[in-house]
Amino acid sequence: MPADSLPPLDPLVPLDPLGPLAAARRPMGLRERKKLKTRVAIRRATHRLIADQGYEATTVEQIAEAAEVSPSTVFRYFPSKEDIVLTDEYGPVMAEALRERPAGEEPLESLRSVLTRTAAALLAHEPEETRWRARLMAEVPAVRARTGGTTAGTSRLLAGVLADRTGRGADDLQLRVLTAAALGAFGEAMAYWAEHDQRDDLVALVHRTLDALGGGLTG
Questions:
Q1: Would you give the DSSP letter of residue 8?
Q2: Model confidence over 78-88: pLDDT tens digits?
Q3: Phi, psi of 197 (to 5 degrees)
Q4: Closest CA to 166 of 120, 83, 101
Q5: Residue 155 burial (CB count, 10 A)
Q6: Contacts of residue 174, Cβ cutoff 8 Å, sequence gap at least 6
Q7: What distance in Å separates the CA atoms of residue 66 and residue 61, rounded to the nearest whole number?
Q8: d(CA 121, CA 126)
Q9: Distances (CA, A) of 154 to 16, 54, 91, 148, 150
Q10: pTM
Q11: Each residue's pLDDT tens digit, 109-127
């Protein structure tokens, strides 16, 4: 199905990282909850508009009006329209889940656990958004091109957790490569899933892409 003709998302579906990763989530303060509410409102407005009129026809000004915020507020939370599509709230939750993995576990296996649980949580709690986003990644060049930039922050978070666990420096090159590669593998699994009409088991695809990375840290 072309990205411009996707069905609208159910506005009642919660865009929030719950489910298999919920136990790792730290309680949020009032200010953080307000920021989350604004981010979610902007994302929901964007999803509705793109589903109704297509990606290219949707402007930031329209998104701001639909979310009842100013265009400057949209840009304060999301540098570009592509970032609105791709950004979610899972990064900090994934970092907390990674921190809870057994201390002696191979780093790649810890990342595998977190990423496969994330895939399961996305399908269980944000199924329509996940399918819609994956299709846009596969069909809209600007969205696909921006994918790496939106995962950079999550990659740094995960690398920082692994640095604490392994005793390596926070800027350790191998940690950076490992986490970036694991998130890249996750993204490729999503893209492959969308390109093949989302018929496959997404969690199994994530396992397959991580298998391709090999044995994790060395040296």
A1: P
A2: 999 999 998 87
A3: 60, 25
A4: 101
A5: 21
A6: 168, 217, 218, 219
A7: 9
A8: 8
A9: 16, 28, 5, 10, 8
A10: 0.77
A11: 999 999 999 999 888 888 8
